[in-house]
Automatic annotation (TrEMBL):
SUPFAM superfamilies with a match to the protein in the record: Periplasmic binding protein-like II
Coiled coil: none
Gene3D superfamilies listed in its UniProt record: Periplasmic binding protein-like II
InterPro entries: Bact_solute-bd_prot1, SBP
Official protein name in the record: Multiple sugar-binding protein
């Protein structure tokens, strides 16, 4: 993971020249050719595509830095929209000309591309070796291709306005569902809008309410903790009572009037703007959005785990692999040069994105491998609390197959907007599951 503008940013930026001063030697695996580890001048041309919606200045900064270090390399930079990588990448796949380095999501769609041979294997690169084992697992395809290095490790959290909590008489953060409902009502009674929801962003909706519905009703309940493996590999029925209940709590919040005014047309960034401006008291977002919510001059925001659990039951943590970077195959592959840029953004200067986005570093030993990292203390505390939870569940985008997830987004949005009922989940997902099965049989 991943991440999200409502509008598509697919545009070519600059053609910049960039080469080789001194960089750290790169150790590479079976797919990516090794560099010589010297300060010898590098020259040539690279095509790269990077997501610029969560931390747009990171692309500019990397380009400027790489330009200073490698002035003889011509770098053609395209921007991607992390909520819709496919818009950028599908035409390039059709043309057989993937960028040398590209931003990707940790999804079934990209793992399938890796299995089909569109990406180089990046095992052995310093970023691959340094990232957490869980990220290595999530960025390994079914045939064993190690296809990306993550830009962070994430979870879903509740961001709340500390001052508005105090004004509403809320003395502690909610720790279960009933306390959360009470909290929403107190905020509403005090004249505050309780919860910011991006009704116009199906991808964002596909991360939040449904994440916790699945986490509690399917995983923590013991109904089917391994549902995603079963659904990936064979027949699966999403019309059972357990699945029909996963959005019931979201409907309770909507019908109680706890969503902000105009939520139906709010995209993700309007949602976060309203929270940082103090117009709405809370929002549930991925930890990768912390840099967009805790802003200088903004509202006094706290962060805590999401209380979707019933009284007496444990909360569930959501595990998210941050979006990553892969090396694409194309007719002009200069793997030595591509590996230089890949290592530059995934390891040597990965802190540029990390500090701007506020994400949690993806490394086993962050202190050693990213000494320049700056992690907000509020985020670190909330992340530690989430990571300590004994039950974990995957974010839907990384748990469902690509075909089914497209319908997940449509289903959640339809329910939130009042155009479908939670009980209709099978009508949306089961046909997509059958379509997925048909791809397995080809």
């Amino acid at each position: 993971m991943k991440k999200v503008l409502a509008t598509v940013l697919v545009l070519c930026l600059t053609l910049m020249a960039l080469t080789g001063c001194q960089t750290a030697p790169a150790t590479t695996g079976s797919g990516a050719a090794s560099t010589d580890g010297t300060a010898a001048a590098a020259s040539g041309e690279l095509n790269v595509a990077l997501a610029a919606d969560i931390a747009p200045d990171s692309v500019t900064e990397w380009t400027k830095m790489f330009n200073a270090d490698y002035p003889d390399v011509k770098l053609n930079v395209a921007l991607e929209d992390a909520s819709s990588y496919e818009v950028t990448i599908e035409p390039l796949i059709a043309a057989g000309e993937l960028p040398d380095v590209l931003g990707i999501g940790c999804t079934d769609w990209f793992a399938t591309l890796a299995d089909k041979g569109y990406f180089l294997d990046v095992s052995g690169t310093p970023g691959w070796e340094a990232q957490l084992d869980v990220l290595k697992q999530m960025y390994t395809s079914s045939t064993g291709v190690h296809f990306a290095v993550a830009n962070g490790v994430e979870t879903e959290l509740l961001y709340y306005n500390i001052d508005q909590f105090e004004q509403a008489g809320i003395t502690s953060v909610p720790t279960n569902w009933q306390e959360f409902l009470d909290c929403c009502q107190k905020l509403k009674d005090a004249g505050f809008q309780p919860l910011a929801v991006a009704g116009a962003s199906p991808n964002n909706l596909g991360h939040s309410f449904i994440s916790f519905g699945i986490a509690h009703e399917i995983v923590a309940s013991g109904y089917d903790p391994d549902w995603n493996i079963k659904a990936r590999d064979g027949e699966y029925d999403f019309s059972t009572p357990e699945w029909q209940s996963i959005l019931d709590k979201a409907v309770i919040l909507r019908d109680a009037g706890y969503f902000q005014r105009g939520y139906e047309s709010a995209d993700l960034y309007e949602c976060m703007r309203a929270v940082t401006a103090g117009e709405v008291a809370m929002t549930i977002q991925g930890s990768y959005q912390t840099g967009n919510i805790l802003v200088d001059g903004g509202a006094n925001i706290g962060i805590t785990t999401v209380p979707w659990n019933e009284t007496g039951e444990e909360q569930v943590g959501i595990v998210i692999a941050g979006d990553g970077y892969a090396m694409g195959k194309n007719s002009n592959n200069n793997t030595d040069l591509a590996t230089k840029f890949f290592n530059y953004v995934t390891f040597e200067n990965a802190y540029v994105y990390q500090n701007m986005s506020g994400t949690i570093p993806p490394w086993i030993d962050a202190a050693a491998d990213m000494p320049n990292a700056i992690v907000n203390e509020k985020l670190k505390s909330a992340w530690d609390a989430s990571n300590a939870l004994t039950i974990k569940s995957l974010e839907p985008q990384q748990a469902f197959t690509a075909i089914v997830y497209e319908q997940v987004k449509q289903f959640v949005q339809a329910v939130i907007l009042g155009n479908a009922e939670p009980s209709q989940i099978g009508d949306y997902l089961n046909p997509a599951q059958q379509e997925h099965l048909s791809t397995l049989q080809k």
